[in-house]
Write a structure and sequence with these properties.
This protein is of the alpha+beta class. The chain is built from nine helices and 18 strands. Strands 7-6-5-8-9-10-11-17-18 form a nine-stranded mixed β-sheet, sandwiched between helices. Strands 12-16-15-14-13 form a five-stranded antiparallel β-sheet, with helices on one face. A hairpin with a 5-residue loop joins strand 14 and strand 15. The longest helix is centred in the last third of the chain and has 14 residues. The radius of gyration is 23 Å and the shape is globular. It holds the Pfam family PCMT. GO terms for molecular function: methyltransferase activity.
Length: 391
């Protein structure tokens, strides 16, 4: 008797307790993940002192092993046109996700037989094949922004006998002509959950998406749509994904946004430890990103041989809209010298966000939730939706 096509992946997931729903276990067993891996994948490496993604054939010994293990693999860089040196890529733009994360997202939908699901981000089609196995081809609609990626997924799925509806278009708009749906599953990250997703899900339906305010990597967010049209829910676990294309940030440097010699630059000081922006607490990262929108931080440590500056650092903030600030950290403590330009006082905003987080008892990410309103506004709350965090 031949082994199930997805037996190796299923074993890798069930042995770690990642698949607990028998219906999804059967789906994973039925789908051959290797069929969705293109001839070339992209592996993170260093070239000329720069982090890039290098092309590797799927026949490479490591890649061949990873295909059947709990690994994500990059399947496209730079929207299909590698922009790095020597044919390497700079920005990963499509992937086949880590199977354990795929399973977590599917199980978070809490689907019933014959539910209708909108998938945002077809990618390779592997996730879509699992949805087809669980719900049926006629119950799943998928939308993919990249025509080439969408066409390859169509071909692969057809070769395996799956015939779901795949639409090429902007996933942020959903597919209103095919709704309403019982659930939306996004395989791309969102900083702002598109209102269209709420509009196209019935009350009581779920929206499962990687979400983050942009300052930190995304977390898996599970929202339930209410009768009032708003959706509310909590973050479940880490979920690093590419962002929706119109929400991803540019590849740039702080030098593109900070000019300490520009007219109007203001000198000052802050009592806030500038290193606060590097606090790794996931709850703090979410609060900071939400309360100080658009924030980007860069920390430059003093050189190892700078004996007169041991432990010092320059911390730079900017928002890509013209506002920036720097602060000079020294172990001697406050006050810290600052420079700033633009309309926003970024250090004041960071200090206000820190105060709000501390007043709330320094909550971890597990105590934070999100409300998305029909007009697109997003509230971050503590424990219950009525406890909205503000600065």
């Amino acid at each position: 008797m031949n082994a199930a096509p997805g037996a190796r992946i299923a074993r890798a997931l069930t042995s770690k307790g990642e698949v607990l729903d028998p219906a999804w276990h059967r789906a994973v067993l039925a789908v051959d993940r290797s069929a969705f891996i293109p001839e070339t994948v992209w592996i993170r490496t260093t070239r000329q002192g720069r982090t890039v993604f290098a092309p590797y054939p799927r026949t490479d010994a490591d890649v061949s092993r990873w295909i059947h293990q709990d690994y994500a693999l990059m399947t496209q860089v730079d929207d299909g046109e590698p922009a790095g040196p020597d044919g390497t890529g700079i920005v990963p733009t499509s992937s086949i996700s880590q199977p354990s994360l795929v399973a977590a997202m599917l199980q978070a939908l809490d689907t019933a037989d014959r539910d209708r699901v909108l998938e945002v981000g077809t990618g390779t089609g592997y996730n879509l094949a699992l949805l087809c196995e669980r719900l049926g081809d006629d119950r799943v609609v998928s939308i993919e922004v990249d025509p080439g990626v969408a066409e390859r997924a169509r071909r692969t799925l057809a070769e395996l006998g799956y015939k779901p509806t795949i639409i090429t278009g902007d996933g942020a708009a959903g597919v209103p002509d095919h709704g309403p749906f019982d659930h939306v599953l996004a395989t791309v990250g969102a900083k702002q959950v598109p209102p269209a997703w709420l509009e196209q899900v019935r009350p009581g339906g779920r929206i499962v998406t990687p979400w983050g305010p942009g300052y930190t990597s995304a977390a898996l967010l599970r929202l339930v749509v209410g009768e009032d049209g708003a959706a509310r829910g909590r973050m479940l676990r880490d979920a690093a994904f590419m962002w929706l294309r119109d929400q991803r940030r540019a590849v740039d440097s702080w030098r593109d946004h900070i000019d300490e010699a520009a007219p109007g630059t203001a000198a000052g000081e802050t009592a806030l430890n500038p290193r606060t922006v590097s606090d790794p607490d996931p709850g703090w990262g979410v609060v900071l990103g939400h309360l100080v929108p658009g924030l980007v931080a860069h920390v430059a440590e003093a050189a190892d041989d700078a004996t007169d500056a041991v432990g010092e650092a320059t911390v730079r903030l900017y928002d890509r809209a013209g506002s920036w600030a720097t602060a000079e950290y020294t172990p001697a403590g406050p006050p810290y010298e600052t420079l700033a330009g633009g309309a926003r006082d970024l250090w004041a905003e960071v200090a206000a966000a820190r105060a709000a987080w501390e007043r709330a008892g320094r909550p971890g990410r597990d105590r934070l939730g999100v409300t998305v309103h029909p007009d697109g506004r997003q509230d971050l709350w503590l424990d219950t939706p009525d406890r909205v965090l503000t600065a």
